Amino acid sequence: MADLFTAVRSRPLKTTTTSDDEPGLTAVRTSNLHQETTLPSAAGFPKDSSDVTLPRSKDALFQIRSPEDILLLFRSEPDTSHLLATLSKLSEPGSVGDFNFFDTGPLQTRITSSLVNDILPNFWPTLKAEEQLLLAATLRSLTGINAVLAKLKQTSPSGRDRISDNGQQVTVLIDCLTLILSGNDTALRLSHHADNDQTELTTKQHLMARELATLLGSGKIVSIVAQATDTVKLDHGMPTWLAKGTDFAAWLGRNIATIYQSLDGEIDEVAMRAYGAQVLTKALNIGYPNALLWAMIPLLIDDDAQMLGYMLHSLPMHAKKQLLEQLLRWLSSLTSSSGIDVEKDLENVPSVMPSIFGFLNAVVSDDSAVQRHLQIFLADPILSSSLTYPIRQAATSALATIAPDSLQDLLEKLMATFSARLFIDHAPVLQQESIAQTLLLTAGYLHRHNPMAVLVIARSSSHMQGTSNRLDASGHRARWLGMVVAMAVSSLIDKGGSKMNFGTDEVQTEEAEWYMGLVTAKGDIGDLARFRDMLLKTVSQSTNTHSKPAKKQAMSSSINGIAVFGPARPPRPAQTEVIGEKITELVEEDSDEDDEDLKPYAKPDSDAEDSDEDATLVNRNKARPPVYIRHLMAMLRDDESHDRFQLGMQHAARLIRRKANFGKEVKDHAEELLGILCNLQDPFFTPDFDELKLQAMIAALLSDVEHIGPWLSRQAFVEGYSIAERCIILSALGLGGRELAGFKNEDELNPTISGTDFASTRLPARLHATYTAEHSTSTKLIDTASRKIEDQLMQPLALKAADVTTAHLNAVKVRTFSSRMEVERTKRKAPANQLAKVFGPAFFVPLLNLYQQELAAYGSRSVFSSTQIVLTTFLRTLALLLHASGPATMALPQITTDFWDLLLSLRVQTITILPVLEAVLFALLTLLEVNTDKRRLAQEEAKKMIETQTWVEMVFERTGGGDGAMVGGGGEEEAKVRSLAAGVLIKLREVVEEYQKELFGRVIDFLYLTARLVEPMPIGLPLVGNLPVYVWRGSTLCSRCKDLVLRHLTFTVSTAPPWSCETFVEVEVGCQSFDPSRNAGLCNAPDAEQKVEEAERQ
């Protein structure tokens, strides 16, 4: 029973109490009597006093006794100092008992998941470079890399239609992964974490090493990072080497070389060789062999090629064959890029070839499997033709040096292939030339080693028959190769005048002599160090040469600032010589004497933070950017610390947007945060305060539109706010809704850089706005947006009017085909409109209801009625939101009716106030533009259309005289109002004309059909021109339907003949008294069939 209890002791904390503390309470702390590990508060990092003071419970959790305490600390929103100290402790193996964080296990996985999901998105943007390195070093393990990749794959946005994408989170994850994998010894350090510096590896650690090799050597990292980068690069433009296959392969090659360089006996060499072989085997299939070998081979070449031997011996059989093939192709690309010509004499081969011979000797030596693969490679015409001649010579020389007995078998295979009739007639010339060259080289080396073997092969029937087949071939090149090979082989085995000589001019050329000289070619083994130096020099030159054109190529994908899709335009011809008079520089000898009168520039002032001589007065605890929303709210409430308040304002919008899609932290604190922002004042004259405040409010609004939209709308009508604060709230609603609809303009929402103007007598910004007539910052952005929409709505009307006035020039109004294609090239698919779903319940209905309640309660004393700037901003906000929502707005007919009633109710109040009148007309123009269903608008809103037309015509007439009857404007304002009124009238006329076309078109169609098919019987007066209304003989219509004929003419033909009473006529308003069985119709008429036939013939 005693084992179930733990000895504890309680002691009072030494805390300073104030007079408000209750005297009966004493703060105590419970601690374990056993030895505990207390994490120091410093740990090499300064204490962050800028953050909010943690509660005492969190200080208790900071006592690290076990890994569970670390996990609990990470999940309890620690401050920066505690986090950095814990990471420093966690990176040291054995600092928390026997717990190894870099091992694999359920507890390590939970801690890593908390680091990636909770700590990394919150703290990474605010950490310094060395602190980011510490966090990346903590995640440098198999579990950490997998967690970051999984989070990156999950976070990468799948499209552009989200409310706020995760581009910033993707950037954070890619930056962290780049730091985790950076370095040429990353794979080695990860393997050290896996084996925990043990001399004997367990089965679990072998599995970890294999999984680590699969992760690094496969293309998983490249594919995930490349997909994430392609998704967000249009917005963030962050190039990273992890997304480029060549750069990643080069990094992998350097890490593989580092693994083999570390075989110094301190760790299990067999396990490290196996680990390196696993990584290399996977890396050979990544798809970038040249980049891999360029980075790996120079680091593995030493004086005795020992590391190359380690690498080859540790590889499996199939990997050896694959590595050999890629090595030969890589060396071929190396020699071809050096300008080596395969048809020149050996004297023209660069002096580096002996080093390549020595390198291939080192690769082939002491490995029979590699020698066998090399022999098969040289005998295959397809594979051999992919190599340059110097590499084929080096490979043949290596076989002759290491395994001379294999040359006879190789020569027999080459002779059989070269003499085959099928190969002569159908093989490409390049393959025949490569086989001929390899055959002559092999014959020469074999003759020096075993002359009798060459004599036997040359006297065989296969060689004789092959020469005969070559001479009988139809191709000139095939015959020529047969003659040259036969003469070269004969020169080895025959003497004097018995040597074969065809005596033609074809075999007397320089090329023929070069081929015949291949049997005497020799390959000298050179120094490997020279080959290594050449490779390193070439790598450095290629890096300097090819680093700049990539940026230039990336800049050519746009025309006039617009993204272009399709083939790039050809470059313009460059000017290569100077045209015109040359400029000659005149240097005066006595210029130094004239410069004595010039005053030098004054030295720049020193930093204010370091100007104090007393080191104790320097502020060492500088404010840090906020990490959590609660930290941000505390910084915004701080009216005593200048640095904390301004830092909070500068990072508010970025922090809110970064965490909008990350958990529920922003949603849980959105109302409280917006309450602070709505009442926020600037106690320190912060630059661009209103814009920063507006950005933060927009970001908070977009985090939860359906809930925050109505709440923020209510704040605009709450008592206690100033006019500027109400305008900022309305601007946040309008601009936030436009961003939700896809009309985001980052340039206008970003703060402008202050302090770039020259000195002048201009007042400070806070006073200049007060004493001038400029628009205040609270309404500047929403006014700018409304001006743009006005221009967009009025431009088509102006163009249409211009077309009418220039109708006599229609013949020359031709749009070229190329210009249409240019426009199509730059078109992009518009993103989904998210505002159309929530405009009514989240924005329009709350604003309209609250406005009506405000007027009902206060009447003309309301700020929305007595202050024109508030009313103007209110109307422009509604109009902007309706325009951004578009024709797809849910419940658009009801919104149209309510908004139209609101605008008509302001006719009398706004007739003499130009700014408000302009806002009303702009709202009317937007309303008519959004409602694309003109027929519904004409049928349901006919009364409002007539009232609007009458009122707007009066406004148009009153603003044309310029008599100054309007308040708040002059000539430009009246001209603007007049143009908006004209636009509204044109829109109303378009609605009426379109409905008339549809209505009268149906009437004419009905009259035409009935006049042809039945005998006319006029009913009532003519309705359209001089045409009477016709119905069928023997009328089957009741009096109600006859009235419909006279008033609405709603009949339409629906089916093909022959018709019946039920199908010939459809009445949109159903006739209850229509009974075809009692009334004789067209189908019961005696001559109905004849009249139908006559109508069809006509």
From TrEMBL:
Residues of the Telomere length regulation protein conserved domain: 626-736
Ranges of biased composition (kind: Acidic residues): 586-597
GO molecular function, one term: Hsp90 protein binding
Protein name (record): Telomere binding protein
Example GO biological process: 'de novo' cotranslational protein folding
Gene behind the chain: TEL2
Region (Disordered): 1-25, 586-619
One Pfam family named in its UniProt record: Telomere_reg-2
PANTHER family reported for this sequence: TELOMERE LENGTH REGULATION PROTEIN TEL2 FAMILY MEMBER, TELOMERE LENGTH REGULATION PROTEIN TEL2 HOMOLOG
